[in-house]
Write a sequence for this structure.
């Protein structure tokens, strides 16, 4: 999936959330019905039934989004239907920890989400800001060739396209030329994007093959 991913706006995110909350309402209704039936058969007091219903509703509300986004690589049924995905701030696949953090703040985002998204240039809600995530439009790519899994924050579609084009043609260039160009790109990233470099650079000694090292840092794959 190339990194020129369009950011999801308030409208598409609201639509996806509405679909998810509709399904969540169905699940909570089933839980409420089941808790009442089981509680009645076990002759539990109203207090115990109320506690079970409340805890179950909270677990569904928080766990629904987190569980789906972890198991479906950043998507929920609503996001899947609308074509959205949660990704890291560099555009790659986000981590389970980040997903748990962004969903832990979902309750606050019920009140603050829309105002924060309206003023943030990347349409992020509070949970996204804290977890370092973005919500983007996801589309399956049919093109061939290297595609970046992540990139520095300062890169736009043009920079991504140039680097993908270089990696696509690297094997056709003279080795010295390809290695020199890849080395320049790596040096530029290290100097201009230190935060990204610190996160992306492998812990082991970098490969002498600078083209391979560039692919590794940018998670470039076919």
């Amino acid at each position: 999936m190339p990194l020129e991913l369009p950011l999801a706006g308030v409208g598409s995110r609201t639509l996806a959330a509405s679909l998810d909350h509709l399904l969540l309402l169905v699940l909570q209704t089933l839980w409420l019905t089941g808790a009442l039936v089981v509680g009645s058969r076990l002759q539990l007091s109203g207090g115990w039934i109320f506690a079970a219903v409340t805890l179950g509703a909270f677990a569904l509300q928080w766990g629904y989004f987190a569980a789906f986004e972890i198991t479906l690589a950043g998507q929920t049924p609503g996001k899947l239907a609308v074509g959205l995905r949660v990704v890291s701030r560099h555009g790659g696949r986000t981590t389970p920890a980040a997903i748990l953090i962004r969903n832990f703040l979902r309750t606050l985002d019920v009140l603050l989400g829309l105002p924060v998204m309206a003023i943030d240039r990347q349409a992020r809600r509070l949970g996204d800001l804290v977890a370092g995530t973005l919500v983007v439009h996801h589309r399956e790519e049919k093109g061939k060739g290297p595609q970046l899994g992540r990139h520095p924050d300062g890169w736009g579609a043009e920079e991504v396209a140039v680097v993908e084009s270089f990696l696509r043609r690297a094997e056709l260039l003279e080795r010295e030329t390809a290695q020199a160009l890849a080395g320049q790109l790596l040096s530029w990233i290290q100097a201009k994007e230190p935060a990204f470099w610190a996160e992306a650079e492998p812990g082991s000694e970098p490969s002498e093959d600078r083209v391979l090292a560039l692919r590794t840092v940018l998670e470039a794959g076919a």
Q: What stands out?
A: The first helix runs from residue 10 to 41.
